[in-house]
Design a protein that fits this description.
Radius of gyration: 23 Å
Number of domains: 2
Strand content: 15-25%
Strand order of the largest sheet: 1-8-3-4-5
Distance between the termini: 20 Å
Shape: elongated
Length: 268
């Protein structure tokens, strides 16, 4: 399976995947998301969130895999299939990600969009990206959340002296408001459509996540086993390396990948 380890960690179906989306790498069409046992689901949720968006999944998977690729245990990542579509030594679009609010529109009347308020990630859920559509029709502005379909409507002052709209809270993200800078021209209609994308900078470190996972009841025994056969014995010894975080993380990630593969093949 191409991108074997990454696909297992992401645990989302490949069908209908859009490779033009931020951070996306190929997932086979035949891959289906797996139902994980509670003990493994709890650890997965610490890393990725309870209901992550695709951007956060990609962000976390990229962090985890780059760390493992940088250790002497990279060969385990490629043991089941050496084919990968990403280069762990090359900076990708996730590393140069522009956080904040970005508005886009083909209308000449639209100039810019600005956020008011602190854009915070929801890393419990695993959500850092929301997309909203906006539309000006006459003197009315409508904002719609793509994911939830929540919408908000506000009146817009169309006088030439007013080029910036009043703040309107983003539906489903009420702690952040958006204002639009518009053309001063009043000729013709102000009918205009576009999108606003909000991306929050993740704040939770991998170190914090590993500490949280280490405190999950019975997780270590279930992940590595009580009479560990190889390669789990190697992964467990890495996990015990408290003084070397990359190797400790490699032990965790590799053991999860191998357990996920066992689940996929019906061995658990």
């Amino acid at each position: 399976m191409i991108n074997h380890a990454r696909t297992l960690l992401m645990n989302r179906p490949g069908r209908n995947q859009s490779l033009v989306e931020l951070g996306e790498e190929f997932i086979p069409d035949s891959f289906l998301a797996q139902k994980l046992p509670p003990w493994l689901q709890n650890a997965w949720a610490v890393l990725f969130g309870n209901d992550p968006d695709n951007t956060y999944r990609s962000y976390v998977a990229d962090q985890l895999l780059r760390c493992v690729h940088a250790t002497d245990y990279e060969t385990y990542l490629l043991l089941h299939d050496r084919r990968i579509t990403y280069d762990p030594k090359v900076i990708n679009d996730l590393a140069t990600l522009r956080y904040g609010l970005l508005g886009e529109s083909n209308s000449a009347q639209y100039q810019n969009a600005f956020a008011i308020g602190e854009i915070e990630p929801n890393e419990i859920q695993g959500r850092i990206r929301e997309v909203f559509s906006f539309g000006f029709s006459g003197a009315t502005l409508t904002l719609t959340n793509h994911r939830t379909q929540q919408a908000k409507v506000a009146d817009v002052d169309r006088t030439p002296a007013s080029t910036t709209t009043k703040p309107l809270a983003l539906p489903g993200m009420e702690e952040v408001s958006v204002t639009f800078e518009l053309s001063t021209s009043t000729s013709g209609s102000w009918d205009s459509v576009g999108t606003v994308t909000v991306i929050a900078r993740p704040r939770k470190s991998l170190v914090d996540k590993v500490v949280e996972i280490d405190n999950l009841p019975d997780f270590t025994r279930r992940l590595f086993g009580t009479k560990s056969a190889q390669p789990y014995r190697t992964f467990y010894n890495l996990w015990l390396q408290q003084a070397c975080f990359p190797e400790r993380l490699a032990g965790l990630v590799l053991a999860m990948v191998f357990r996920l593969n066992d689940i996929r093949l019906g061995r658990v």
